[in-house]
Fold this sequence. Notes:
alpha/beta
Amino acid sequence: MVLVTPTASGKTLCYNLPILQGILKDESRRALYLFPTKALAQDQKNEMKELIDEMGVPIRSYTYDGDTSGQIRQKIRQAGHIVMTNPDMLHASILPHHTKWVSLFENLRYIVIDELHTYRGVFGSHVANVIRRLRRICRYYGSDPLFICTSATIANPREHAEALTAKDDADRPQRCTERPQTFPVL
Length: 186
């Protein structure tokens, strides 16, 4: 799924609310949020905390980055419903140690890629390969998460998201020729 609207138009609520609803229906569900920067992940964590506090529900949301202490990292691996990170941290600390993240990968239902951009050169190849590696690890643990991508700036969001998240050409999603009548329940 790709959400494309102008900056500050509510994209975050479009995925946060259905994901929170899904976790409330089944507390074993997990979500992985990928943000391009640590600062954006921290901002979104604070926004998510406010939302969870207002709802008064026992959902645990954490950022996992280079500043996260060792004690908190273990707690996140074992009990985090929503893990917010960035592609570099996913590559360097989560994917190589996937055996420590079994709870996340076995129950991963949602992967959010916020601020979908086109990256060129080595960095672009790196991000694309990290996403492919993430899909392989999910498959290894028996999960097939829904990718939710957002952008305010990209000109070809559907094509870009399909190219970035497709398992391979045979699994590439077919183009939808009709507009859905209702918002899909996650």
